[in-house]
Amino acid sequence: MTSFQLTRTLDEHAADSALRSDVSEGLGHTPKVLPPKWFYDARGSELFEEITRLPEYYPTRAEREILLERAGEIAAVSGARTLVELGSGSSEKTRHLIEAMPALDMYVPVDVSESALRGAADTLLAEHPGLRVHALLADFTRALRLPDSPGPRLVVFLGGTIGNLLPPERAVFLASVRAMLSPGDALLMGTDLVKEESVLVAAYDDASGVTAEFNKNVLAVVNRELDADFHTADFEHVALWNREQEWIEMRLRARSELVVKVRALDLVVPFAEGEEILTEVSAKFRQEGVRKELAAAGLELTQWWTDTGGRFALSLSVAEGPLG
User: Fold this and answer.
1) What integer is the mean pLDDT of 227-236?
2) pTM summary value
3) pLDDT band at residue 112 using 50, 70 and 90 as cut-offs
4) 35 Cβ partners below 8 Å, 6+ apart?
């Protein structure tokens, strides 16, 4: 007997309102900023899948290696009967965990794409008769109310996506995750690790130019959704390693002085030659830093697994005693 349920916490206009707000504030800011979540329309998602197969882009392969090697151990240590995945997408990587969890009762994927949630659920329910799937159409950066489900719970946040949040945002996010958990529940989190600058920059500036196209796709999204007149050829893809902050910055740099109109917002945006839009920060981590950030949120780091190359880590942290 299979079971699927979908709970919507986003209304149909939420994405449009968020995009309008982000573009209006971000392009009016100094320096200019556009959040990385707007890369991911259908074309952007295709491009990112292509990026994950590039020789320069190691994080996806490294994380998959750990999951394949450690799924049984993760299942045993967590004892999870409910698996919650934040930003679940196609749920591809999570299948390795689900297959290692014969006692799993419920899977709770959380994503902003209803089509992705339904597609992943169809596949998983066909493979795992008896599994209950309760999908949440929601923004995981906001406080979530999880469905009633048996414990212990394991919340997974994969892909190194935590690195796209700035330190204050990470603190808020981790606190919100801790608020979902009961003592003994756990968080499994993927973090890309600090390494040689040349390796890091190449992962975000591949020789074939796929990441450049992906970066510029945010402009195509703004053009289509907000009737803007960005010309992608007017902007150069830039990937830089910020040594002080230990993160990669992806930017779009204006090749010349120009003016862009965003008609849906009645917005005129001037660019000086060389002026940049910051489109993504991707922080890289060290074990002790991860431990401290988790501890500040009331989570105790208990397990730390890396791939054989030491490039990427999965950490398991357990919710400590009752909150507050």
Assistant:
1) 98
2) 0.93
3) confident
4) 22, 26, 279
